[in-house]
């Protein structure tokens, strides 16, 4: 008879169409394969599609987002979770750190946190080491940033790259097909650090150079209004499509020929990995985790951040050479298959859980599988 699954609490922020939310859902879907039953705790999971919720336990506590009532909400979240006898808390991002630790003041369980991005210059990282055992960085770049910031000692840090579901087959023969206008796109949270102003400026330069192309921006965020205004100022309204209301990015990624990640800062680039898994050639800036994934000229193209001129040049390179673009897309897919499969991520994360439990309760720990 198989061992009973051990319950782990995944404390997340408000679910949005972005990599951190996808990370939590992928963990929740696959952790039972590795001995753990996850319960997601979130202030709002209303954007999670019904089919994605299947088989998942999600407890929503809306007041966790309230600056006044979050402490009360954490009390009730802990009370409800305690009925399931959890053995571990895994805080899903640094933005959920305060809520996760407030819940754990009642539960007093071993705790981990995943960090997806970089701390700001004067930002603190109040990880409570009374219960906090491990910090998971999604890339070596994020890990190095935490060390530079002196957020935690080296021995508490580990790197586990985010993983993505990889289609069993991906035919990229239609990329840059002569039968239709090429589409150059990007997807993710519309935030200042994503460098999307430079994407729009590059789009204008590509069109001014005489190339026929369409541009797509999928996602929502605080910069959406400013980006739409910028598109109008650049006279791009007839060439740029904004898609803000997607339940997931699959449709947008399948619609594009070239994926761009023009970020000014980037912890890893999960949505870029999804595009690569589909055999799409990518253009990414030379920052953070993205630069470690993309090998210039082989698995993608690299540009300096904040350079619309260079970004446009590299877009034109691929538009002018569809065969090269498809070859880069195939190499990109192989790169993701080798190192960023979601099962690898979940297996390594479950192994960290077991190590933490063993150190907390050595006589009761189960053997690693």
Could you write a compact summary of the structure shown?
With 369 residues, this protein is an alpha/beta fold.
Give a verbal description of the structure:
Helices cover 38% and strands 17% of the residues. The model has no long low-confidence stretch (mean pLDDT 94). Strand 12, helix 10 and strand 13 form a beta-alpha-beta unit. It contains 13 helices and 13 strands. A 7-stranded parallel beta sheet has the order 3-2-1-4-5-6-7, sandwiched between helices. It is α/β, with parallel strands linked by helices.
CATH superfamily of the largest domain: Glycogen Phosphorylase B
* Main pleated-sheet profile: 7 strands, parallel
In CATH terms, what is the architecture of the largest domain?
3-Layer(aba) Sandwich
Strand-pairing-aware structural class:
alpha/beta
Order of helices and strands: EHEHEHEHEEHEEHEHEHEHEHEHHH
Radius of gyration: 21 Å
Strand order of the largest sheet: 3-2-1-4-5-6-7
Kindly report how far apart the N and C termini lie: 16 Å
The number of helices is 13
Which whole number gives the mean pLDDT? 94
CATH C-level category of the largest domain: Alpha Beta
Q: How many beta-strand segments?
A: 13
The level of helicity is: 25-40%
Task: Give the overall shape.
Answer: elongated
Oligomeric organization of the protein chains? single chain
CATH topology category name of the largest domain? Rossmann fold
Share of residues in strands:
15-25%
Number of domains: 2
Flag low-confidence runs. Answer: none
